[in-house]
Amino acid sequence: MSQKPPSVIAIYPGSFDPITNGHLDLIQRGSGMFDKLIVSILRNENKEPLFSVEERTEMLREVVAGFPNVEVDSFDGLLVDHAAAHGATVLLRGIRAISDYEYELQMALMNRRLRPGIETIFMMANETYSFISSRLVKEVYGLGGNISGLVPPSVEKRMQRRIPKIQFKGAS
Ligand code: PNS
Does the pTM exceed 0.90? Predict the structure, then answer.
């Protein structure tokens, strides 16, 4: 008699301040790889985020609504403890460039030491989005640059309400 394989639950952790199209691409691809994908927002008030955890949760829920196996959650404390509490065995992270690798490797090895049963899986960012980061999106938008195509339209609308654009009048 064949046994049903155990379902694989993955956590995709991050700050998501705000979610970008690079994150969304990873969520879409990750949702196809795992039975359940939980996008988990780090609750870290030291980072002085642009959007509160509640706002980021709403934004994420809006954009993942089309993926039935994707959930949104938030956490504080150790990521591996949060993963274990959900029965997750995979941590999903994206790598955009080699410069991401060192930090990601350190975190992956520390997380493995803390909980050897949880595996970090890296996915290469889609080359269309590999230059995008939440930090740059906020900076460019605040300085009057065009961010359409870099974040989901619903996120761009919230940015418009949150950050007044500086209109450049040329160098003086
Ligand atoms: O998108 P980010 O800000 O690079 O995500 C970083 C995140 C949330 C993955 C990382 O800061 C994290 O896992 N924080 C939780 C605290 C923790 O578990 N630290 C020890 C493992 S290295």
Answer: yes
